[in-house]
Design a protein that fits this description.
By secondary structure, the protein is of the alpha+beta class. It is built from 4 helices and 5 strands, in the order αβαβαβββα. The protein has one domain (2-143). Strands 1-3-4-5-2 form a 5-stranded antiparallel β-sheet, with no helix packed on it.
Length: 145
Amino acid sequence: MQEQVHSDYLQAFRGSFTSALRWHHLEDLWQRLREAPEGWFVYAVGESVPATAVSAEAFSAFLGELDQLLRQEHDEDYCGIVYADDLQNPSMVKIYDPNNLGVSCGFSENPPLPGWVLSRIPPVDLQENRPLPNNRRRWWRRVLP
């Protein structure tokens, strides 16, 4: 059973995603997530894989903190660093760290991993081979201790 969950997560993670290209698209996505805040796993890539979904309250608070961080650190007139498997009915969302974008869109032999993954499926270790920067580690631990 555990192997099936692992396989399901990786298959979903490697699937097709659509960008919340503009800031108003991101606002719409956040609203959809807030409408059904139960059952979400919040995984900071490079940290321990969460074993349980976060509470609805913690999830909503995380979205607020994350939105603030993205708007402060991604100083562009577009968003383009948040991707969902389905913008209307998301079950997995990848959020790229504005300070570690690399080639997050387009083609790359070794694309960077997102900074955070929100999913309805229990996450698995994505084998991140870079340590999480200390400033992100502190932010993460403040937002979701």
